[in-house]
């Protein structure tokens, strides 16, 4: 696909999308007809109507066949969008919010009632981007639990714009682990309340009985050779090796780390409490020696210094010669 100087049609198509991952699709549509750029400017979501990362030639030819005719005939925007299965309310999405991840679940959005969809989409581009991130995090967490990414999607599409950073994934944990719960009529406040109660239940000592009849609060369940205690960039890393440690971390940090007890018992997951002067800064989940997630209080994002130290700590475990000592004398925090 040829490049054009500033002011050309292809330049104008690329300018709609700050995310360069959308440029290929935008240029493809813009080349279909001189009027195509007008439709893209009115509904940037058109460029997400087909795969972005792995779209095949057949996908692109299908899109050209579906919308080429309506565009050349100057049909109304809603007709052009309908030709590729897009609901009219999606025209509200700005070019700033339309990124490659949108194409991953644009079909699920189109399954929603048009009125619900219209009310769910935030007005401001930055809020739209956060809304999209909430849905992406939800789907990603569902896959971690081997659940369909469509599970609860209508709910998160409706309320994702209210989620703080990281909150959508936390709520998805609750929904995935309580599959019999019908959340379709729950308000956002009701969901937050139920998730908080769930955290409290997970933190209760009696929850140990569902994992093992012989499991006690002080049973060591992380028998890996990862350091029990280490220091990195002014932060201390304490391995949470017993159910009691994990439940206490969940109580103090107000998140669901206690639900990871069976994963730690499986041997592939390791949980660390990151502290500064014994103040709990964040909870780190390692899958082997890879950082899976880092959560501050109430599942908020950690400060950048904590995040950087966590990644350096993980790299030190992958390369023991880095020389991060275990400073615990008796192997316990």
Q: How does this structure look, described?
A:
- The termini are far apart.
- The protein has 14 helices and 5 strands.
- It has helices at 9-15, 23-30, 36-42, 57-72, 77-83, 102-110, 114-120, 125-144, 153-159, 167-177, 188-203, 243-253, 261-265, 304-318; strands spanning 229-232, 235-239, 269-276, 279-287, 290-295.
- With 333 residues, the chain is an alpha+beta fold.
- It has 3 domains: 9-99, no CATH class; 125-203, no CATH class; 229-322, no CATH class.
- Residues 325-333 have low confidence and may be disordered.
- The longest helix has 20 residues, at 125-144.
- The chain has a 5-stranded antiparallel beta sheet with strand order 1-2-3-4-5, sandwiched between helices.
List keywords for this structure.
44% helix
Briefly summarize what is shown.
This protein has 333 residues and is an alpha+beta fold.
Shape, principal axes of CA atoms: elongated
The count of β-strands is 5
Which structural class do the helices and strands define? Answer: alpha+beta
Q: Give the oligomeric state.
A: single chain
* Mean pLDDT score: 87
The poorly predicted ranges are 325-333
Helix tally?
Answer: 14
Distance between the ends: 60 Å
Sheet with most strands: strand arrangement: 1-2-3-4-5
Relative helix content: 40-55%
Summarize the biggest pleated sheet.
5 strands, antiparallel
The ordered H/E elements are HHHHHHHHHHHEEHHEEEH
Q: How many individual domains?
A: 3
**What is the radius of gyration?**
24 Å
Kindly estimate the percentage of residues that lie in beta strands according to DSSP. 5-15%
């Amino acid at each position: 696909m040829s490049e054009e100087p500033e002011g050309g049609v292809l330049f104008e198509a690329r300018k709609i999308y700050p995310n360069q991952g959308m440029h290929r699709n935008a240029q493809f549509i813009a080349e279909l007809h001189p009027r195509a750029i007008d439709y893209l400017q009115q509904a940037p979501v058109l460029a997400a109507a087909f795969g972005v990362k792995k779209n095949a030639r057949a996908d692109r030819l299908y899109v050209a066949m579906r919308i080429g005719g309506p565009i050349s005939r100057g049909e109304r925007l809603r007709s052009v969008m309908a030709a590729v299965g897009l609901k009219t309310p999606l025209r509200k999405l700005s070019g700033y919010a339309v990124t490659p991840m949108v194409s991953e679940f644009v079909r699920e959005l189109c399954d929603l009632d048009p009125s619900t969809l219209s009310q769910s989409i935030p007005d401001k581009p930055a809020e739209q981007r956060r809304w999209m991130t909430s849905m992406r995090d939800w789907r990603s967490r569902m896959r971690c639990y081997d659940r369909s990414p469509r599970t609860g999607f209508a709910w998160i599409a409706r309320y994702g714009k209210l989620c703080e950073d990281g909150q959508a994934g936390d709520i998805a944990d609750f929904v995935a682990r309580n599959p019999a719960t019908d959340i379709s009529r729950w308000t956002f406040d009701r969901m937050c309340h139920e998730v908080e109660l769930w955290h409290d239940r997970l933190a209760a000592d009696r929850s140990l009985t569902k994992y093992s009849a012989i499991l006690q609060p002080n049973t060591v369940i992380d028998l890996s050779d990862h350091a029990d205690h280490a220091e990195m960039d002014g932060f201390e890393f304490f391995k949470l090796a017993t159910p009691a440690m994990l439940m206490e971390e969940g109580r103090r940090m107000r998140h669901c780390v206690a639900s990871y007890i069976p994963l730690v018992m499986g041997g592939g997951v390791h949980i660390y409490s990151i502290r500064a002067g014994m103040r709990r800064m964040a909870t780190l989940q390692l899958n082997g020696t890879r950082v899976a997630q880092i959560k501050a209080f109430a599942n908020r994002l950690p400060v950048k210094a904590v995040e950087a130290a966590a990644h350096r700590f993980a790299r030190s475990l992958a390369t023991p010669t880095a020389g991060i000592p275990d400073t615990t004398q008796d192997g316990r925090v």
